[in-house]
Amino acid sequence: MIVGLDMGGTHVDAVLIHQGEIIEATKSPTDRSNLLESVWGTLKSLLSGQDPSQIERIILSTTISTNAIIEHKTDSVGMIIECGPGLPNDFLCCGRENIFISGYIDHRGREISPIDPQEIEQAVKTFKHKNIPAVAVTGKFSVRNSGHEIRINEMLKDEFFPITLGHTLSGKLNFPRRVFTSYYNSAVYTTFLKFSKSIYKALQREKICAPIYVLKADGGTMSLKAGEQYPVNTILSGPAASVMGGQAFLKASQDAVFLDIGGTTTDISFLADGVPLFEPLGIKIEGLPTLVRALYSVSIGVGGDSRVRVKNQSLVIGPERQGPPKALGGLCPTPTDAMIALGLIDLGDKHKAISAMKEIGGPLKLDPVAAAKKVLDTMADMIKDKVEKLLNEINSHPVYTVKELLYGKKINPKFIQVIGGPAKAIAPMLSKKFGMPCRYPEVYEAANAVGAALARTTAEITMFADTAQKTLSVPEMGLYEKVSQGYTLEESKMRALDLIKRQSMLFGAKEGEIRAEIIEENSFNMVRGFYTSGKNIRIRAQTKPGLIYRLRSDENVSS
Amino acid sequence: MLAAKNRLGLVLFPAFDWAISPSHPEREERLLYTQDQIFEEGIMDIENIKFYNPEVALKKDVQRVHFCVPDVDQRVTKSHLISAGGAIKAAHTVMDREVDKAFALIRPPGHHAQRVVYGDRGFCIINVEAVMLENLRAKYGPFRAAIVDTDCHHGDGTQDVYWNDRDTLFISFHQDGRTLYPGTGFLDEFGGPGALGYNINIPLPPGTGDEGFLYVLDNLVLPILSEYKPDLVVNSAGQDNHYTDPLTNMNFTAHGYAELNHRLSPDIAVLEGGYSIEGALPYVNLGIILAMAGLDYSHVREPDYDLQKLRQPQKISDYIKELCENIYSRWKQKDALTHELLKGKDYITRQRQVYYDTDSIMEYQTQKFKVCLKCSGVNTIKSHTDRGMPIFAVTIPGDACPSCIDEGYKIYKDTDIQKYYKIYLQDRTNDTYLTKGARNLTY
User: Which of A368, A375, A394, A414 has the highest CB neighbour count under 10 A?
Assistant: First the structure.
């Protein structure tokens, strides 16, 4: 049995899956004042009467870290930032104290000027004086040479906890994001650690010894232990849970649009050859961009319970929600009322729904049926407009080679996948508007919790080899080693595939389920004078996000 | 997050899969470290800075500017069309007011490409800025433009394209042609009969540093621009005046480039040359991006920057001061000089030899300009190379009067196809491009 749990802002969903079927599901409200109890209480009721020894694994998608940030309940962090020359640096001040130090590494990872130990000693004094427990250390180009970050860590490690070093979080080049990501990791560290410790304790008490994982924003999992070290990666895993959940109910191997239509919002994602698309660099958290790898997901303020009104002779839906639909005792007409009025869903008081449509139809001179159709039509238009805009953005993402510019992959959706309360009712309209089939599952119970339950472990590494300097680095793994001058792209790729497997297993993956792949490979001849001095090799490898298996379920197609 | 004062469009297209040859300066690696620097600085996250992909320039975009021998398809690669298309895309974002300014970081460069193109010269085949500018004029209508070329080599291609066009003021800063390729760019190259004075060369002595460049800008270029009043300023932003460039002998710095860009305030900048790919380009490009975005560039500095070593000797400062006075006074006298030159003449001809260093071709040209009081005048190029391939080309300028249009078509019609490999008509007034030839057109 597999346990999946997704804690959202309002509800905690949990499922128990056995041999491809959901055998138990619960939903309970989230108690914001006691998130641990929300998780634990839900698990307890889900597992009551089950044999704990039958549980194979438990996966949690939580808002523990996200909430701590939103409610400003994080630890204060002392930032040590090594900027080198370049952009002005004041915008990087994200910690309680921000110390900018001298020292500088260039784009090839060469030390141009060393760190000044006195500046670090001064930083220690300042942080101590202000009672700052947590520290994050980040340098420009530290992913090319982590020497400065590691030396600073040596000087700090007996005095502070936790300490996040920028290069350990991601191998991607983006210094401001590395600064912000390190900050968040240190800021939520103890919050997450407390949570994880209590989970362990509770599981022990209940004699559950199954491995436990947390869901990341990229739709993959990592062990709770790995999560303790990199809690920043557990931030905003909710949308990923629902995208992955959608895939558990719906088959796809082509490009597709994925919609999760909820009460207040519709979340839009895309699949490329059946695999969910990523954010190019990482998600934004409270306005700050990070390197936290995440599935691409954009929300628009239109959902089943959005307020519908007429303004200047035209129909306006959302973006706000003002309570439930009229048919369910609410005050405002909503798209759900339109669906009820048209008999597309059987819910609440149909008379109230029809009178809601009368209210809308009046100023537009439409009868209730026409008004209801108009509401759904407008809703589908809004979704379509946004989807097209996003697709256009995605398909014009920057490319850097002639080949990619001329022949690069463009996302060209062949169908729409939709889950959520209004899915079935709106599917025919979406299909008509988009001119492509629209698939929705017959039941999609607790899709988010299912997504968490069935997600695979994922990891990503960035490899950089410079054969002129005879160096090879994989920052995420803290790997900096010597290579020969004759090191080739092929050798690098083999090594990267081996390393990504190792990294995935460190994160809790089982050997058989790792689907490792090279996602980017480049090798440049470095020419100095008239001679080739070496090769500059860049590789990114990942374990693909995906599900360990799909649920046995029925799906419907509207076309 | 950081927000730019000016909305800036960036086309960053390093063409990682294109090179002239594996160890040529114009190779895959050229913008690798620039891209690393831009990525690491997080430029893509700065509010108001937007990245765009290049378009692919069309055949017609090239024909507005060039006579390609034997034709566009056989002479121009996709990489060149994308490079020009990158500049076009950048310019469109400015013209469409999506952004305030734009910078196209593209390769290969273009400012050595002249009107006739037999091959590659100075790593250029088509003139990126000219193809861009003429695309803009075709799309948005006529306007006055100034191209300020801050590449270390004389922009001889751009000079040739705009030689007789007074709606395009061309100003080139460069290392003195007596000491560097292509060996042209002197004060007396002043423009054709229709645009005398609108081609300004500023040959600077080897060793010129920040002080000299900024002196020229403040005391010569900006005053001329304020008199010319262009609708659009384009910077051909070659970066080989940098003190670390392996092909040149100047002492300009990344901060100097940023400062120059800030004071010049171009609407569009287009990367040209610059081959110190590790020591200069990452920093110069960053400096220009920040300057164009209206952000603080005072922290941009090269790893080996040493103010003492880069200080400009007094002798050079004195020389530059005198040079600027000389050039400015010629600019002021351009009408009198025009009157003097054209007195009693119906046609002005000039003989030229053009060497294609990259492809080792020598071209022999005669350009003939009609002196017309109503327009810039129909003009022709008769040309052949040391490998043969004689061509004849007729240009009807965009501002042509009816009689110059008629004359252009008549010359094209009357030219004997037996005498030439190919004959071209470039009718800029009607945006029409014709060719004819008797022989089998394979190269």
Answer: A375
Is B3-334 a domain of CATH 3.40.190.10?
A: no
Cβ B1–A398 below 8 Å, yes or no? no
Phi, psi of A84 (to 5 degrees): 65, -175
- Chain B residue with minimal CA distance to A395? B53
Cα–Cα–Cα angle for A307, A270, A475, rounded to 5 degrees: 120
- The percentage of chain A sitting over the pLDDT mark of 90, rounded to a whole number, equals 76
Low-confidence stretches of chain B (pLDDT beneath 70):
438-443
Asked if B399 contacts B411 with a C-beta cutoff of 8 angstroms, the reply is no
pTM over 0.90: yes
Predicted confidence (pLDDT) at residue A114 exceeds the cutoff of 80: yes
Give residue A553's Cα distance to chain centre: 26
Choose among A217, A231, A213, A192: nearest CA to A58.
Answer: A213
Q: How far apart are the C-alpha atoms of B384 and B364, rounded to whole Å?
A: 6
Whether pLDDT at A3 is above 70: yes
Contact B53 A399 (CB under 8 A): yes
* Rg of the Cα atoms in chain B: 21
Lowest mean pLDDT among A4-13, A70-79, A487-496: A4-13
The SS3 of residue A141 is: coil
Q: Do B299 and A88 touch (CB under 8 A)?
A: yes
Domain locations in chain B?
3-334, 346-436
List, in order, residues 6 or more apart from A311 with CB less than 8 Å away: none
Query: CB-based contact (8 Å) between B28 and chain A?
Result: yes
- Residues whose CB is less than 8 angstroms from the CB of residue A342 and which lie 6 or more positions away in sequence, other chains included: A369, A372, A373, A376, A425
Which residue among B17, B53, B303 sits closest to A106, beta carbon to beta carbon? Answer: B303
> pLDDT by residue (tens digit) across B232-279?
999 999 999 999 999 999 999 999 999 999 999 999 999 999 999 999
φ/ψ of B253, rounded to 5, equals: -115, 170
* Residue A553 pLDDT exceeds 80: no
Chain B positions in Cβ-Cβ contact with residue A526 (cut-off 8 Å) = 29
